[in-house]
UniProtKB/TrEMBL annotation, chain A:
One of its GO terms (cellular component) is acetyl-CoA carboxylase complex. GO terms for molecular function: acetyl-CoA carboxylase activity. This protein is a component of the acetyl coenzyme A carboxylase complex; first, biotin carboxylase catalyzes the carboxylation of the carrier protein and then the transcarboxylase transfers the carboxyl group to form malonyl-CoA. InterPro entries: AcCoA_biotinCC (IPR001249), Biotin_BS (IPR001882), Biotin_lipoyl (IPR000089), Single_hybrid_motif (IPR011053). This is Biotin carboxyl carrier protein of acetyl-CoA carboxylase. GO terms for biological process: fatty acid biosynthetic process.
TrEMBL record, chain B:
This is biotin carboxylase. Residues 121-318 form the ATP-grasp domain. Residues 2-447 form the Biotin carboxylation domain. It catalyses: N(6)-biotinyl-L-lysyl-[protein] + hydrogencarbonate + ATP = N(6)-carboxybiotinyl-L-lysyl-[protein] + ADP + phosphate + H(+). The keyword Ligase applies. One of its GO terms (molecular function) is biotin carboxylase activity. This protein is a component of the acetyl coenzyme A carboxylase complex; first, biotin carboxylase catalyzes the carboxylation of the carrier protein and then the transcarboxylase transfers the carboxyl group to form malonyl-CoA. The lineage of its organism: Bacteria, Pseudomonadati, Pseudomonadota, Alphaproteobacteria, Rhodobacterales. It comes from Antarcticimicrobium sediminis. InterPro entries: ACC_Biotin_Carboxylase, ATP-grasp, BC-like_N, Biotin_carboxylation_dom, Biotin_COase_C, CPAse_ATP-bd, PreATP-grasp_dom_sf, Rudment_hybrid_motif. SUPFAM superfamilies: Glutathione synthetase ATP-binding domain-like, PreATP-grasp domain, Rudiment single hybrid motif. NCBIfam families: PRK08591.1, PRK12833.1.
Length: 78, 460
């Protein structure tokens, strides 16, 4: 199990825009550098990228939820 | 004045600024705040405060129904909108009017009219204010476009009449390019907006951004001189000055008089700013838009004139007449403001909402720091990155830059990363010191690595 953490406090988004699908869904292959979500911090959107490869398990916080720095955003199965 | 209880529908440094102005006028202050802002400085300073919803702006500071309900519930006589959020919303101004609460700003109709670029341009032209030379309305054919371009002078911008947000804008340097680009622009406009109509405007090369502060009481209006705001990154001002030393006295007088003419023609009430492009080579200025609110950079105008713009706007919107005649407003020296943002300029300006540690605030004659910080404050990540504005005032521009460098060196904000190093580097830059810049200057300067060079002494 690999955890992806937020480097910054802010608002977490599963989707690139409200009309689109989430970046990743359960079972998707995740490569190093894949974008799994966005953090909005001070009106700027920062891409959250996987630092390890794996299979996407789940988002661990809701879409559009406030998060703190270090919060676990998603988990991957090895 | 009819305002005894003022509701502040904003946050951050401008909320603090408004509270201080209101208190100086003996007005009771009521601060609105979101759940993300419960511990902000304005809440601590206000006489009372009221929560208006969750942290995201759309659920709190931008929610007209919630803000108006809170103003009614706290028995406010008037609402100050600050800048950003609902400060240029005619719907908000109308909702307050319907609730019997005064709005510290112009009428909803004026906000609406000046917020519409075409209507604002028409109002400016009617008041005799120069606008960017262009076609009178839409052009139907490529031949007509070429004729217009010949009159206004190349290069020209080709824009979709129905468009907005920069879509479909092309720049043609000569007639051959225009004949190639105009049909493309027509097709794109047709596809995007179902309307292939175009209009043309002269593309002003490397313009300066110069703006004029005005204030009116609904009948009379005066100007509080101009500001030079050309140092911008991503269309956000980072460094602002009063006055614009590139202007000769005759041009300055004409510019400021044009702003007053427009303000009078719309019976303007409150503080407002007319923004212009200034073409230095031609010594010509063109109105581009009006902001119907107080602006972030208002303190530089206050420093050179000694006028408290926020107090004055509260007074006139409370039904008083302007306390100033034009001849009472004199310029004295030079002022510079720099925006201290919670961003790391060495990391592509990555936002950095840290927790404020020990603070050292520079003090002294001609130094002012408008901010909302206190030791131990955790900067919330939900809003923009402006932490404060460091403002200096000195007899000359050269002295003001020296004072700015000194004040920046004396500013200590532990626990944060801020844009202060950018401003120190700018204050040391030869072009900035000589006043040689325009709106397209700062981004290439940053891309060329000048910030890194300045802060490592060229060692990298």
């Amino acid at each position: 199990m690999v955890q992806i953490q937020s480097p910054l406090p802010g608002t977490f988004y599963h989707k690139p825009s409200p009309e689109e699908a989430a970046f990743k869904a359960k079972g998707d292959a995740v490569a190093v550098g894949d974008v799994i979500g966005l953090i909005e911090v001070m009106k700027t959107f920062i891409e959250i990228k996987a630092e390890a490869a794996g299979t996407f398990a789940a988002y661990t916080v809701d879409n559009e939820a406030p998060v703190t720095a270090g919060a676990v955003l998603a988990e991957l199965d090895d | 004045m009819d305002i005894a209880r003022l509701f502040i529908a904003n946050r951050g440094e401008i909320a603090v600024r408004i509270i201080r102005a209101a208190k100086a006028l003996g007005i009771h202050t009521i601060q609105a705040y979101s759940e993300g802002d419960a511990d902000m400085l304005a809440v601590k300073l206000a006489d009372e405060s009221v929560c208006i919803g969750p942290a995201p702006s759309k659920d709190s500071y931008l929610d007209i129904a919630k803000v108006v309900a809170a103003a009614v519930a706290t028995r406010a006589d008037a609402v100050h909108p600050g800048y950003g959020f609902l400060s240029e919303s005619p719907e908000f101004a109308r909702a307050l009017e319907a609730a019997g609460i005064a709005y510290v700003g112009p009428t909803a109709d004026t906000i609406e009219r000046m917020g519409d670029k075409v209507a604002a341009r028409q109002a400016a032209e009617a008041a005799g204010v120069p606008v960017v030379p262009g076609s009178k309305g839409r052009v139907a054919t490529v031949d007509e476009a070429a004729e217009v371009a010949e009159t206004v002078g190349y290069p020209v911008m080709i824009k979709a009449a129905a468009g907005g947000g920069g879509r479909g804008i092309r720049i043609a340097a000569n007639e051959a390019e225009l004949r190639k680009l105009a049909p493309q622009a027509q097709q794109e406009a047709q596809a995007a907006f179902g309307d292939g109509g175009l209009y043309l405007e002269r593309a002003v090369q490397s313009p300066r951004h110069i703006e004029v502060q005005i204030i009116g009481d609904g009948e009379r209006a005066v100007h509080v001189y101009e500001r030079e705001c050309s140092l911008q990154r991503r269309r956000q001002k980072v460094w602002e000055e009063a006055g614009a030393v590139c202007l000769d006295d005759e041009t300055r007088e004409a510019l400021c008089a044009s702003a007053v003419a427009l303000a009078r023609s719309v019976n303007y009430r409150g503080a407002g700013t007319l923004e212009y492009l200034y073409d230095e080579a031609r010594n010509e200025f063109y109105f581009i838009e009006m902001n119907t609110r107080i602006q972030v950079e208002h303190p530089v105008s206050e420093m050179v004139t000694g006028i408290d713009l926020v107090q004055e706007m509260i007074r006139v919107c409370g039904g008083e007449k302007l306390s100033l005649a034009q001849e009472d407003i004199q310029r004295n020296g030079h002022a510079i403001e720099v925006r201290i943002n919670a961003e790391d300029p060495h990391m592509q300006f990555m936002p950095w909402p840290g927790k404020v540690g020990a603070m050292t605030i520079p003090e002294g004659d001609g130094i002012r720091f408008d901010h909302f910080l206190y030791e131990g404050y955790q900067i919330p990540p939900f809003y923009d990155s402006l932490l404060g504005k460091l403002i200096v005032h000195a007899p000359t521009r050269e002295q003001a830059i020296a004072k700015l460098a000194e004040a920046l060196t004396g500013l200590g904000l532990e626990g944060l990363k801020t844009t202060a190093p950018l401003h120190l580097a700018l204050a040391a830059d030869e072009d900035v010191r000589a006043g040689r810049f325009h709106t397209q200057w700062l981004e290439p300067w940053l891309e060329a690595g000048n910030l890194t060079k300045a802060t490592t002494g060229g060692a990298s």
